Amino acid sequence: MNVLTAYPGGLGPHPAVLVLHHRGGLDTFTRYVLERLAGIGLVAAAPNNYHRRPPGEDPVASMKHLLDRELVTDMNATIADLVTNPRVRADRIGMVGHCLGGRTGYLALGTDPVYRAGVLLYHGDLFAARDPVMPPPIALTDHIRCPIAGFFGDRDTNPSPEAVARLEVELQRYGIHYEFHRYEEAGHAFQDFTSPSNYVESAARDAWVKLLDFLRRMLIDGPAA
Predict the structure, then answer these.
(1) Among 8, 13, 28, 163, which is most exposed with the fewest C-beta within 10 angstroms?
(2) What domains appear along the chain, each with residue ranges and CATH number?
(3) Are 92 and 116 in contact (CB under 8 A)?
């Protein structure tokens, strides 16, 4: 499995973030996300969750073959590599996921207590199972042990505002701290500047400011675990 990794300046050790890619895979946008996170002092690592698929396959086709158990295996392997990296602070690990990656990231938060912070951006369907031997991601909410920041467009249909409200109910049920931000003018994938039909500059810029501030507070400036 190939993993793209971006490092901040200096030997560190630095806090780190697992980046879960959107349906476009390890593309221009995902590389940009890695650079932005490294720019504030985080080691950012993005595993290629399509590595089991044929090279050159259309990402939408690859996405249809993903199994949640295999995604968990990929994320666990990436985290195992991060926590043994001498340039990484093993006690300060976070997660950032866009679109498909938001759903994948929710699986991460619900299956591994290592995370100190989670960021979901217009995540995919948390209420549907995509593996015959695993429950839907929302069923793992009671295992989450970190605060979550979420960013959503009110014009989105997946997740719809109603789905975001259902997620809030579950987070409140288990006493999980969360900070949700909604954008009236935006729909799905509003941060993806490579998709002109989805990109909304005002929402994208504001979400980046709030996202990076959240990670600074939770991973860089916060007390050690």
Answers:
(1) 28
(2) 3-220 (3.40.50.1820)
(3) yes
pLDDT digit string, tens, across residues 52-91: 999 999 999 999 999 999 999 999 999 999 999 999 999 9
Total-model pTM: 0.96
- Residue 223 pLDDT: 58
What's the token pair of residue 2?
């190939």
164 in Cβ contact with 152 (< 8 Å): yes
- Evaluated on CA atoms 37, 77, 134, 116, the torsion sign reads negative
**Which residues are registered as beta bridge partners of 97?**
20, 120
Contact 155, 187 (CB under 8 A): yes
Q: Where are the alpha helices (DSSP H) in the chain?
A: 28-38, 59-63, 68-83, 100-111, 161-173, 201-215
Model pLDDT for residues 183-195, shown as the tens digit of each residue: 999 999 999 999 9
